[in-house]
Amino acid sequence: MFVGFPVADFRTTNFRTTKGAIKLHVGLNHDGYLPEFVSVTEGKCADVTAGRKIQFPKGSIVVMDKGYNEYPWYKQLNDKGITFVTRLKKNAQYRVVKRHAVLNNKGVGSDQTIELIGMQAAKKCPIRLRRIAYRDTTKGKYYVFLTNNFKLSAKSVAGLYKARCQLELFFKWIKQNPKIKSFIGTSKNAVMTQIWVAMCIYLIVAFLKLQSKASKSMQQILRVLHFNLFEKRDLMALLRGDSINHRRYNPNQFLLLLKLTGQQ
Q1: What's the predicted TM-score (pTM) here?
Q2: pLDDT tens digits for 167-176?
């Protein structure tokens, strides 16, 4: 799954004299929520333009928001054996070919097979699609999903789109923890370098979490590393919390470390 997101503004001679913008496009693997595809483009680059350049393996399920809504691309993904799940545009014109039985207690209002009937839409995407109306009872929101997958249950399709929130959490982590909301340099190269460093930090911390089997969050692990950056210790033991030596910290430092890493 992937999404395009404007990371920050920066000054560069290729943009306006006051500010510019870039976008970080990420393909996040549902298994472990780790980035598999990453590209950085200028802010004016459309999300779907970057999305088309990603070569998804056959059999992939691509979950995306309406920023990637483009009918010819839906047809291309379908021809390559790739499933997509997105939201149907409000002004989309279609006709219902078949109605499927639904369980209303699952939040699914309707499950239909449709064909696009707009002059351009029907020409660009002449395949049958699946329209699913779903109400999230926890948030009280109503969604209409569009997919080319007819095998998954309607509830599973809704669950896949709900999992897309992991992308927002990913970008939140990238912005807050490596402090990517502000940039050290203002040239394009400096900004690009800082973004790639942040991505490397994320992958390293994720790898350490996996290897140590620690119950700590990635944010807690990063804080442990900050506090012990110049200490020579067994890293895995440190992350598990069984190598903290009280005598190496004064009482206030040790209590702060425990609090920041969630051990108190």
Answers
A1: 0.72
A2: 778 888 877 7
Three-state DSSP at 114 gives strand
Q: What is the 3-state secondary structure (H, E, C) of the chain?
A: CEEEEEEEECCCCCCCCCCCEEEEEEEEECCCCEEEEEEEEECCCCHHHHHHCCCCCCCCEEECCHHHCCHHHHHHHHHCCCEEEEECCCCCCEEEEEEECCCHHHCEEEEEEEEECCHHHHHHCCCCEEEEEEEECCCCEEEEEEECCCCCCHHHHHHHHHCCHHHHHHHHHHHHCCCCCCCCCCCHHHHHHHHHHHHHHHHHHHHHHHHHCCCCCHHHHHHHHHHCCCCCCCHHHHHHCCCCCHHHCCHHHHHHHHHHCCCC
**Cβ proximity of 82 and 60 under 8 Å:** yes
CA distance 180 to 201: 12
The one-letter amino acid code at 165 reads C
Q: How far is CA 229 from CA 39, 214, 215, 241, in A?
A: 30, 18, 20, 16
Grouping H, G, I as helix, E, B as strand and the rest as coil, residue 121 is helix
H-assigned helices in 132-187: 154-162, 165-176
Q: Which SS3 state, helix, strand or coil, does residue 211 take?
A: helix
The domain segmentation of the chain, as residue ranges, is 1-64+165-212, 86-163, 213-264
Q: Is residue 26 within 8 Å of residue 167, measured between CB atoms?
A: yes
pLDDT one-digit tens code per residue, 41-59: 877 888 888 888 888 888 8
